[in-house]
Design goal:
This protein is of the alpha+beta class. It is 44% helix and 17% strand. The chain contains ten helices and eight strands. It has a three-stranded antiparallel beta sheet with strand order 1-3-2. A three-stranded mixed beta sheet has the order 4-5-6. The protein has a two-stranded antiparallel ribbon with strand order 7-8. The longest helix has 13 residues.
Length: 196
Amino acid sequence: MNYDKILKLVEKNKGYVTTKEVVDNGIDKRFLTNMVRNGSLVRISRGYYGLPNYIEDEYYKIASKSKNARFSMATALYLHNLSERTPLTYNITLPSNYSGVLQKDKNVIINFVNRNILDLGVTEMTSPFGMKIKVYDVERTICDIIKNKNKIDGEIFSKVLKEYARSKNKNLNKLASYAKIMKIENKVSEYMEVLL
């Protein structure tokens, strides 16, 4: 019965399940260990399991390690199709008081922010493997790369700002609102005045 419940969660998640999801559904996490032993699941990393023939969804794996992880900077640019560079490392934003397993992950670059702006511009997207993940919207990402210009490749920085300025979908009011909250109004205005 519990094995079936876990397999239904795995099916719903397109081949993955976390210990947290199992426990949140009232199932003893020892069932996961048994399923790994009998070969019906493989342990991908701590708290993260998949079917034996899984294709690892690094985005989901990272997101499952912290409910506060938001994909940001170069990774958000890629997810919004503003950069063609497939991430080799993943940029995420976490609250400044975070101290968890993601700090030890070599594939993750963390940007720490005050909790009061952690959810500013957060949106839910689908990872390239079909899982729901939290990502900053385009305007928040533009603010982040302007604020952290020294942390992003210069060529990508210029190209993205030019592309955003030309975009019919840009939302300058939202951009200005985010810039004000993030206390970078002058920087954002300078770049937009040159480009628009």
